[in-house]
Hints:
heterodimer; A: alpha+beta; lipopolysaccharide transport protein A fold; about 35% strand; extended; B: mainly alpha; Arc Repressor Mutant, subunit A; 9 helices; about 70% helix; globular; disordered N terminus
Amino acid sequence: MDPDYPLQPSERFLDAALREQARLGAGGRDEEMIHRILQATVHRPVNAVLRRPLVAPNLWDRRSIVVGVGAVAAIVTVGVWVLSSLNYSRRTAQEYQFVVRRIADPVADPAIRPSAIVAQAPLRSLPPGGWMVHAAHPNASPLVGLSPVPGYELIASLGPALTDSAFDTLRQGRLRIIADHQSATDMGIRYEGRVEIEDAEYRIEAQQATLPPLGNVAARSIEDDRDGLDSCLLATEVRVTQISTGRTASAARLRYDLLAGTMELSGLLAFVDREGPTPAWQRGDRLRMTGSEYQIEARPVDAKASFPAP
Amino acid sequence: MEAKFVTNICALAKCYQDMHFLTIDDRPQSGDLDPGHPEDFAVLVERHHRDLLVYAVALTRSDATARDIVQDSFIVAYEKMHLFDVTRDFATWMRGIVRNKWREWLRRERKYDLNDNELARIDAAVAIWQERQTQGHDPLSIALETCLTKLPEDLRETIELYYYEGCTGDEVADRLRLAPAAIRKRLQRARSALKQCLELRGTGDGAGVMGHT
């Protein structure tokens, strides 16, 4: 607010309306705030709801005093234990923002080194720790007036929102990740222990998940199953809920390609489709979900793990 | 003139009744949505959060505080849903919670701001747009966008620089090579014209053609 321009009370409604109009646009929504509200209300785990006793206890009778002293002792003991183990089991929450957009850079050329790809990327100030992945789409038609080899790029940041008003944006979103532990490995950032991941389309619970390493840059086909790990979230022992359809599935492994927007579950353990009859599937099958569509593939004879060995 | 005075008095009276939680038979309800149902609550959050943000910004004049207040208000509403009278209007109830949060904030910050009349005017302005949206009319943001396009060029340019580009008043004055006092006057005129346009749209009389006032 500009302190040099004091407002009359009668102007404050219009001033506030204009500020929100400038921030959110006409008809826009404050998605971040809505997300936080829903996380704290309708999406809050049931066991987090406080239950109040119906009858207020008498705090000064003998039994209450004994129980109270015992409870205080227990709390102190647990508190000491928690403090002593804080470095090893701190539950953390992080948010990744990502944008997938069409670019005209000839990134599919294997002769171009990754550093050169970054240099050719459209001018943008990436937030600290931001990373990019470029990919060429083999079936994409050339854009008029642009390079005949259009491609796609995935831009992601850890923490701060991407403010780039992306030209020709295909997809954008955010991943919110909570886990007991996180560590940096050669494969990327690994989250372990009660991992919860959520974006606009999926809710994922997993035992372990890995995001690509920061600064990773690679060129690949958007539909290439083998070489797409640089833009994929990988997880094991997962339970997935597709928010828009209510479908739920459990599987041994998960691969969520942020660039293509496809979710692949291999080693299927359970699958329920609330929108219609669940098709026949067998334990170990592979489930692919893209938007509202899905496809089940029989378990391959020579199963090829899509999750890399640690 | 007399009709306008009567309209204002009526709006103020209705607003006072809302503020003191009296019921009015013809008050619009929350449609067929049940705030106690999680899915309906999510819809109500999406429907009302923007108007409540405008309300909170108008009260606090702080964007960040306003967002905190609106977020806390929805969470409190969800936790106290068993206290919500289903015969009452959800938007009115939410404005009441936002107002209480704002008063708590004033007490914490040891501030005094807005008397009852001024508060009632802001409340009435927000209430009109919440009611219209509940009835399926254009929300405030759409109406405001239309009104902005009808502003004279010089006023629109000033609004763009000040609100959309985030310039201070002095920076706008530098950009437009005008005195700061002239910019202040332009902003006042622009807000006055927009208010007039919104009042026309809010009462269903259609948008008026705006000129210099």
